[in-house]
Write a structure and sequence with these properties.
Largest sheet: 6 strands, antiparallel
CATH class of the largest domain: Alpha Beta
CATH topology of the largest domain: Beta-Lactamase
Structural class: alpha+beta
CATH superfamily of the largest domain: GAF domain
Oligomer: single chain
Number of helices: 10
Strand content: 15-25%
Strand order of the largest sheet: 5-4-3-8-7-6
Helix content: 40-55%
Distance between the termini: 26 Å
Order of helices and strands: HHHEEHHEEEHHHEEEHH
Shape: globular
Number of domains: 2
Length: 251
């Protein structure tokens, strides 16, 4: 826990404004940014203008949007972080072997973040690109990673939370979602069918280190015309589990 004297409130507000931009809201004005960042409109405007001056945002005078300079952060992470470099060869091998698309994902609060991927570019329409943030509750990887947390941590994550309905198939009832996570804990894998995107099936397994800690999740995504959920489980689950076993000594 950081000491209060060491906490730079202005930096925290600036990062909150920067994080307000996402795929749902790609352009924000000062009013929208203030609402999303939880700060006053005047403070949001100052931070927006400062971030624009620094080159992280662009503007037409009224609305602001992310500039290419923000990619410096993700590019530096992907180039230097150990986990993506360790996982990429395995993802490439799986993609070549199956012609499907594979991703490695970590949990970040309410979302999962793709830190490595390989496979057909046809799934890019689903937003499965490096650095993509997806809602944890509606994704196979998110459920695997939530199932890996302690029950106390999961209860804290669920407290007061409203699960957003993304498709007609998304599990949004808290009691039903808890049952889903319990099932994932028991079977040690997760299949999510059309819960995040219509027409998309996903299968995920945990990636554990030698201490038994789950450090990431590995998943495969396919459209229904290619593979049904049951077929994914029978044909692709053994490949994912074997890959997880091979990666364990490296993690």
């Amino acid at each position: 826990m950081i000491a209060k004297a060491d906490f730079i409130e202005g930096m925290a507000k600036g990062m909150a404004v920067l994080e307000s931009f996402d795929t749902e809201r790609q352009r924000l004005n000062a009013t929208l940014a203030s609402q999303r960042a939880g700060i006053t409109r005047a403070a949001a405007r100052r931070h927006l203008l400062t971030l624009t001056h620094l080159g992280y945002l662009e503007t037409d005078g009224s609305y602001f949007w992310l500039a290419p300079k923000v990619l410096r952060f993700s590019g530096s992470y992907l180039a230097s972080a150990r986990l993506p470099r360790l996982l990429q060869p395995t993802l490439n091998r799986l993609a070549v072997h199956t012609s499907e698309s594979f991703s490695a994902v970590v949990l970040d609060g309410d979302h999962v973040v793709i830190v490595a991927r390989s496979g057909s570019t046809r799934v890019l329409a689903y937003g499965l690109h490096l650095g993509a943030r997806l809602p944890a509750h509606a994704t196979s990887t998110g459920r695997v990673l939530l199932a890996a947390t302690t029950r106390a941590a999961f209860n804290a994550w669920m407290k007061g939370r409203e699960l957003a309905r993304l498709t007609a198939h998304t599990t949004v009832d808290p009691r039903e979602f808890r049952a889903v996570i319990d099932q994932v804990r028991t079977q040690d894998f997760c299949v999510a069918s059309e819960e995040h995107e219509l027409g998309v099936h996903a299968l995920a397994v945990p990636l554990r280190n030698m201490q038994g800690q789950t450090v990431a999740a590995l998943n495969v995504v396919a459209p229904p015309q290619k593979l049904q959920a049951a077929q994914m489980q029978s044909d692709l689950l053994p490949l994912l589990l074997e890959a997880a076993r091979e990666l364990r000594p490296l993690l």
